[in-house]
Structures are given as structure tokens and as C-alpha cells.
Design a protein that fits this description.
Elements lengths: L3 E4 L3 H9 L3 E4 L6 H11 L3 E4 L10 H5 L1 H21 L3 E7 L24 H13 L4 E6 L2 E2 L8 H5 L4 E2 L7 E2 H13 L4 E4 L8 H11 L7 E2 L2 H4 L15 H4 L7 H19 L1
Parallel strand pairs: 1-2, 1-3, 3-4, 4-5, 5-9, 6-8, 7-10
Length: 277
């Protein structure tokens, strides 16, 4: 018996598995009802966490050309897990996305009960559809946004950005992975349900992130800022740029503001890079 059963053998799924005591990782296809039921019966967990889904490689443009695969993974899969958990009376936790908004809601940030306003990519549409369907049930939904980690990885926003010499500079909410995992665990332990924005308080543009990267990790790194209109000539579909409110999360857990958290993260990032030299 495992306390937690995690679906999704990707970056976030493995991060959750490593961070939680008594966690098992399933490689079952979440769109396969029989496979899902068998995995839950085998491990008999108290909590099921869905970390599976399609975000696209190298980016969400992939989802535009693979809409069926994206829909199955991001919409049908979560519904299959929801139904199985309801039938077997297991608490269901779904890792969603904050990429369902555009803007900063007049400086207030978007709260969990604000209706999504960004439909500019197929990826974002599927996240909205799944979120709305799950919201009708006692499910805990953790919104992840532009994940940042303390070590290099192709899914880490830091690693992505340093590959480019030109970046946009729009204020965005960000999720420091260690804080995301910690906050998610706290909410699960309290038996919370509903949607939660799991981002560090505040917002940061790419230029600020890379300026701190220059200061802490690599003083020789250089970059320039390009307008958002230029980016749109280089990609197939739109990108969500938004700021989320963390007031609801703050009732349960306190996270470092993004400026403080980013500095800590980049200090560790440099240690990892130096150790690999």
C-alpha cells in the first residue's frame, strides 16, 4: 500500500515521487480505464496525483499539430482518473496550469474563481476544459506556472531562457518547483479541494530573471529584450503571459516572494553547474 500514487512518468511526476514519503509512480496510460483501475487497486493509495499530460516538445506549438494526442492526455485522461478515484473513494489531486489567463487583472492578479480569459493556444484550451470539468467534483487542482528548478533541465524555465539571446520581458507568475511541491503536500495533508494557484508571491519578467542569472551564475551571459510582437512572428501559436493571485494559498502556506525564491534557486543552480565541471 502506498499513501500516494502518482500518474505521469515525466519531470513533475518524478519530482513529486521523490519528494513524498511512501509514494509510488505508475506508468499506466491515464486514458485506459482498466489500466488506471488496476494501478489503483494494486497500490491502494489514499491519494492519487495526476502529473501526466502533454505540454509539447520543444514547446506548446507541438500541441497545435497534435491536437488529438493533446486532448486525450489533457482532458480525457484526467476525467478517467477522476471517475476511477470517485468509484474507489480515493482523494484525487490534479496538476493543472496557470496558463489559462492573459494579463494581470488590473494589478490584482487572477484569483482562482476568475474565469479563464486566454484561449490563444490549443494547449491552454485543453487545460481550461479539464479544469472546468474537474471543478464540479471534490478534486484538488494545483495550478503550476512557468516552473523554475534548482538544477538544469529542459523543462526548467532557467535552462530554456539561457538558450536564447533575445527574450520577451512580460511580467509573469512563476512556480519554484521545491515550493510548489511543498505547498501541494501541505494542501493534500489538509484534505483541501478546489483550485489553488501554486506560484510564489509577486511576478517577474524574463529580463529580471536573466539579470539575476548574470549576477549569480554567469557574469559573461548576455541577452537583449525583444517586443512580444516579434516573438509572435517566430512561433505557431500564442503564449499565455499572466499574473496570478496567491491570496487563497496564503491561508494555508507561506512561500518566499519570487525575488527571494529566485535568488535562492539560482544560487543552488550555480552549485549544480559548478559540481558538474
Amino acid at each position: 500500500m502506498a499513501q500516494y500514487l502518482i500518474f505521469g512518468n515525466g519531470w513533475i511526476g518524478n519530482k513529486f515521487t521523490a519528494s513524498l514519503p511512501d509514494a509510488a509512480l505508475s506508468r499506466a496510460d491515464i486514458t485506459n480505464k482498466q489500466a488506471v483501475h488496476e494501478a489503483i487497486e494494486e497500490h491502494n493509495p489514499n491519494i492519487v496525483i495526476n502529473c501526466a499530460g502533454k505540454t509539447g516538445r520543444p514547446n506548446v506549438d507541438w500541441c497545435e499539430d497534435h491536437q488529438r494526442e493533446t486532448y486525450l492526455a489533457n482532458v480525457v485522461g484526467p476525467m478517467t482518473l477522476r471517475d476511477a478515484c470517485l468509484e474507489q473513494k480515493v482523494h484525487f489531486v490534479h496538476v493543472g496550469s496557470g496558463c489559462v489567463y492573459e494579463g494581470d487583472n488590473n494589478g490584482h492578479g487572477f484569483a482562482e474563481d476568475d474565469l479563464p480569459n486566454y484561449f490563444g493556444s490549443y494547449y491552454s484550451k485543453t487545460k481550461i476544459w479539464a479544469e472546468e470539468a474537474l471543478a464540479q467534483y471534490p478534486v484538488l487542482q494545483l495550478r503550476l506556472r512557468m516552473p523554475v528548478d534548482k538544477g538544469p533541465h529542459d523543462r526548467n524555465l532557467i535552462t530554456k531562457l539561457v538558450k536564447y539571446q533575445r527574450v520577451i520581458n512580460v511580467q509573469n507568475s512563476l512556480s519554484i518547483i521545491d515550493d510548489f511541491l511543498y505547498a501541494g503536500k501541505c494542501l493534500m495533508e489538509k484534505g483541501c479541494t478546489g483550485i489553488y494557484n501554486i506560484t510564489n508571491p509577486g511576478a517577474m519578467g524574463h529580463a529580471r530573471l536573466l539579470t539575476i542569472y548574470q549576477e549569480i551564475v554567469d557574469p559573461t551571459f548576455t541577452f537583449t529584450v525583444m517586443p512580444l510582437t516579434e516573438l509572435m512572428t517566430k512561433v505557431k501559436t500564442g503564449r499565455s503571459n499572466c499574473v496570478l493571485s496567491t491570496k487563497k494559498l496564503a491561508h494555508h502556506v507561506t512561500l518566499d516572494p519570487i525575488e527571494t525564491a529566485m535568488r535562492k534557486c539560482l544560487e543552488h543552480y550555480k552549485q549544480v553547474i559548478d559540481a558538474r565541471k
